[in-house]
Amino acid sequence: MGVKEIIEAVLQVVDSNNERLLIYDDGSISRSTSMVNPPAEKVAIAEFESCIEHRLPKDYRSFLLEYNGAWIYQYITDLGSNGGGGLQLFSVQELKENMYYMEVYPGFLPIGTMYDHYLAISLEAVENQNPNYLYRIDNDDGPQALTLNFDLFLARFVVSQGAAFWEWPIYNAASRYYLEGDE
């Protein structure tokens, strides 16, 4: 499934108020909303690529050409207001505005935020044609490889309903019961 199909699937399962319920991995339920921007102009993307002296990865570039930024699974408070959270994917203008945050981590392009962390592209990985170019960056631990590209990250984020799937432990059924003390 490509970027467009993933985003269209997210937008198909909202109600008339552009809301949907999410069930989190801890069993809690929350209301969320998802929104997309109109497409970016090809010239704006080309100018940005010229500015950073790198071509954006194909899957991320196609996202910008379809939806110039998005909010996926943004929380809605009990009072019905925007509660933040979820995944914010930057527009071309927001890419420009957020570049200065990466001065501490040269070679990374912030493309969004999630859980108070940046989602970033390693420009070196893209240049070296490494398909695992996506990183999570926080100020305490620095860049951490997600070993994913944008398309795969977005698909997993949507399927996991916005959960931090990259932090899930990897074990089999037998070791799960042992590790969680349910033997």
Automatic annotation (TrEMBL):
Coiled coil: none
Entries under SUPFAM superfamilies matching the protein: SMI1/KNR4-like (SSF160631)
Domain Knr4/Smi1-like: residue ranges: 39-156
Name the record gives this protein: SMI1/KNR4 family protein
Organism: Planococcus notacanthi
